[in-house]
Write a structure and sequence with these properties.
The protein is mainly β. The chain folds into 4 domains: about 120 residues, Immunoglobulins (Immunoglobulin-like, Sandwich); about 90 residues, Immunoglobulins (Immunoglobulin-like), CATH 2.60.40.10; about 30 residues, no CATH class; about 90 residues, Immunoglobulins (Immunoglobulin-like). Helices cover about 10% and strands about 45% of the residues. A 6-stranded mixed beta sheet has the order 2-11-10-5-6-7, with no helix packed on it.
């Protein structure tokens, strides 16, 4: 009985303290995040025989350390070395919507046990506002995409005043459980609009503060005709002169100026990983945008093996004439191994060297 009391006394003398960072921790969709959790005991060193560290989400054990890492989840890590220093932080890579929630850091240092909660919010909002380039009835379109949860405010403003006649589209659900929506304001720009500030205002719970995107109204002027050059070209025959003049006049009354497009280098997104709902498959996508001309080659490989991708219908941007496209591959989950590499190569005449994006699997 006395020996038991002696051992018990040695254990209880190690007072346990646990510290976490303020909540919520806000992370962008697809980024990496570290949920901080540290602990101290009032002994010179940590005795692993007394220590158990666990991380929970919605009642499920995500990670567990009991002398060593005994439970782990894909995309999540704890470090044995850091735990020996009192750092039980949880690292999560490639943040997804399903990762959002209240995480519990549970530290047991026998006989004391302390649990603290860290809330993770996933920020998934992006805004596109176009540049106007025509002096005729025009649609200003502001799109918010990739956000979660679904409640959002998207408004057009002119000189700071809300344009109530702007129309809101129906809500669109994305494959990764995020949403997209757009607000459209239709009007005919005049010279008076050159001095007015148009902006798109987006407010969402995942944002620390609302986003406001200003747009620039660019006007295309009338065609100017240089008569000396015209007479030089057409002096050989009066019939050709009058025909060409009539044709030119017809063009000027029916056409607007559009810029000459030179090859435009594509912008390539990072590879996105999207689990296929209800299937044992994973979809990988890449967005390629702002390229011209429209001919483009997109090639995938999985751990060195060539895969055929599926390309969406090309979208042409009416403002600048460039093209955008999304390409994807679907791979069975059983073929995805840790450290395997997904690679996509993009070839276009605007690039001397192909653009390459790579993703190393963490699962």
């Amino acid at each position: 009985y006395s020996i038991f009391l002696l051992i018990w006394g040695n254990v209880t003398s190690a007072a346990l303290n646990v510290n976490i960072e303020p909540s919520p921790v806000i992370s962008d969709l697809g980024s990496d995040v570290l949920l901080h959790c540290s602990f101290t005991v009032d002994t010179p060193s940590i005795d692993f025989s007394f220590l158990i560290v666990k991380w929970f989400l919605k009642g499920v054990v995500l990670m567990e350390f009991n002398d060593k890492i005994t439970v782990s989840r894909p995309r999540m890590k704890m470090s044995d070395t850091e735990i020996s220093k009192g750092n039980a932080s949880l690292s999560i890579s490639d943040i997804r919507i399903v990762d959002e929630g209240d995480y519990i850091c549970s530290i047991l240092y026998t006989p004391e046990k302390i649990e603290k909660t860290v809330s993770l919010a996933v920020k998934a909002v992006s805004v596109f506002a176009p540049v106007i380039s025509e002096s005729k009835e025009t649609d200003l379109v502001c799109s918010a995409s990739g956000y979660h949860p679904t409640e959002i405010t998207v408004q057009w403003l002119r000189n700071g005043q809300v344009l109530n006649d702007a129309k809101l589209s129906s809500l669109q659900r994305n494959p990764d459980n995020t949403s997209s929506i757009s607000s459209t304001y239709t009007f005919t720009p005049t010279n008076q609009d050159k001095d007015k500030a148009y902006s798109c205002h987006v407010n969402h719970t995942a944002l620390r503060k609302p986003i406001e995107e200003d747009i620039l109204l660019n006007y295309v002027g009338n065609w100017h005709f240089h008569w000396p050059l015209f007479l030089l070209l057409c002096s050989r025959t009066s019939k050709f002169f009058f025909f060409f003049f009539f044709f030119l006049k017809l063009m000027l009354t029916t056409m607007t100026y559009s810029p000459v497009l030179f090859p435009a280098r594509p912008e390539v997104s990072d590879i996105k990983e999207i689990p296929v709902s209800g299937e044992d498959e994973v979809k990988f996508t890449v967005d390629v945008s702002k390229f011209y001309p429209k001919e483009i080659q997109i090639h995938w490989s999985h751990n060195g093996k060539h895969l055929e991708g599926k390309t969406s219908e090309q979208h042409c941007n009416v403002n600048d004439g460039t093209y955008s496209v999304t390409n994807q591959i679907v791979i069975p989950e059983r073929e995805l191994k840790e450290k395997y590499q997904i690679k996509v190569t993009i070839k276009h005449e605007s690039m001397e060297e192909p653009a390459v994006k790579e993703k190393t699997l963490q699962d």
